[in-house]
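Operator note (shift B, R.M.): manual run for R-opsin requested after the automated queue skipped it. Running by hand, logging everything below so the morning shift can see what happened. Input copied straight from the record, untouched. If output looks odd, do not overwrite the archive copy; leave it for review.
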Amino acid sequence: VGPVFNWGAYVPEGILTSCSFDYLSTDSSTRSFILCMYFCGFMLPIIIIAFCYFNIVMSVSNHEKEMAAMAKRLNAKELRKAQAGQSAEMKLAKISMVIITQFMLSWSPYAIIA
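Run finished. Output pasted below as returned.
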């Protein structure tokens, strides 16, 4: 959308079969456009995703601790089964964090170089 309003530019790349943002130009308009794309298209989503997953992991962890304390007090088999379910949710949250981390590690070099 930026180049429509004369902010940044798209130029042909490679063998002239596709276009990309102009990363070779050094004028301030193009540089600010690239920085905005980097922050809005890469960093901001990563920050939001990390914040959300951190809150999910913390909520599941707190709930797991509460369930463990309740199971000890009541010594009930049903609560232990629920605790096992909570452990599965915690494992799922950890796997999700690994996926997000892998996404960041995979795309960070491209986002930084481009």
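Quick read of the result: The chain has a mean pLDDT of 80. Residues 28-74 form the longest helix (47 residues).
Leaving this for review. - R.M.
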